[in-house]
Design a protein that fits this description.
Length: about 350
């Protein structure tokens, strides 16, 4: 099943019920659509004979709101900047690191935060990482135009751009475009400058994409030619024979993100199976499945080494050769401020 198809099915079913794919009833995983592909956690299926039950969400804030409102699952898959919000709300509990041997093989840079690991325990298991940069139609967009993030405010591209309907990603873009590469130390002046730039970029937006399938369809249909994009969309567009380029070396830079699993408090399922699922995810053999299915890299250094020579790793996940804004945990109050401002900008204010 392709990511486009699985995402479309999940979105259709999400209007009916959050639980889109029911399988092993003793473990419910709240996840992004597409991550239900068996090759990512084959070890779990080998042990238990079936996949977990998956429920899906479209973005991190939607996931948080559902869980905060009482939706029950055993584990969830937020990106790193959300973990402090879950901790502050008392929705998660620490993992027992002794039951996850491959934690020792996770690249230390992904655990370098007291939000993830402190004297109270291991609150987060980083599992996958990706990049956000400029995807563009190489037949319609000159390479020099995407050498800068200012392409998103270039009047020549009015109605021809798309941005993610994600506050984290659009603010990463806006900060980079206005000279900020560390969003953990943003001043009021820098915030306002980025907000003003984002309002200008909004004038060029044809549509905000909700998920990679949505973005791929916007580009493949010819509706837009330039996108602020996760790297997973490259594989989707390549399958459509779309002439896609991916510019990660714009002079202002690009962004990176990583995601992982939290252990939800009072989950209704089998705790042992939650650990089996995480151990399957972190098995080095899963790295190729993750790359093939989603296009992301494994945080497990042993797993990533098995695919290190793959062009998709080198081109989409390796050294970008320019400034990087890493989407690591930032001040929750600042993030809420960004989220509120983004909603105003999308509404035309």
């Amino acid at each position: 099943m392709t990511l486009i198809r699985s995402t479309a099915i999940a979105l259709a079913l999400s209007a009916i019920t959050p639980a889109a794919f029911a399988a092993d009833k003793e473990l419910t995983v709240f996840d992004w659509a597409g991550f239900e592909e068996p090759s990512i956690f084959q070890g779990y299926i080998d042990k238990h004979g079936d996949s977990p039950t998956f429920a899906f969400y479209g973005d991190d804030d939607e996931a948080y709101q559902k869980l905060a409102s009482g939706f029950k699952a055993d584990i969830a898959h937020p990106c790193s900047q959300m973990v402090s919000k879950y901790r502050d709300a008392g929705l998660i509990e620490p993992w027992d690191a002794a039951r996850i041997p491959a934690v020792a093989d996770i690249d230390p840079k992904f655990l370098n935060s007291p939000v993830f690991k402190d004297d109270k325990g291991l609150w987060y298991i980083p599992t996958d990482f990706g990049s956000t940069a400029i995807a563009y139609n190489t037949e319609k967009v000159p390479a020099e135009d995407v050498s800068t993030l200012q392409v998103f405010v270039n009047p020549a591209y009015q109605g021809r751009t798309t941005l993610p309907d994600s506050a984290d990603d659009v603010w990463a873009l806006a900060y980079l475009a206005t000279g900020v590469t560390d969003w953990t130390k943003v001043t009021d002046e820098q915030f306002q400058k980025a907000a003003d730039w984002l309002r200008e970029a909004h004038k060029n937006v044809n549509a905000y994409w909700a998920d990679p399938a949505d973005e791929a369809q916007l580009m493949a249909s010819g509706a837009v030619d330039v996108a602020w994009s996760w790297n997973d969309v490259l594989a989707l567009l390549a399958k459509e024979n779309y002439p896609v380029g991916y510019q990660r070396a714009a002079k202002e830079g690009s962004s990176t993100f990583f995601c992982g699993f939290i252990n939800l408090k009072d989950g209704p399922g089998n705790e042992d199976k939650a650990y089996d699922f995480i151990n399957a995810w972190l098995d080095p053999s899963s790295a190729k499945g993750l790359l093939d299915t989603i296009g992301y890299g494994s945080t497990n250094t042993k797993g990533l080494a098995t695919v290190a020579d793959d062009p998709r790793v080198k081109n989409g996940l390796g050294d970008a050769g320019g400034p990087i804004l890493a989407q690591t945990p930032n001040d929750p109050a600042q993030r809420e401020k960004q989220l509120a401002e983004f909603e105003k900008i999308k509404a035309g204010f």
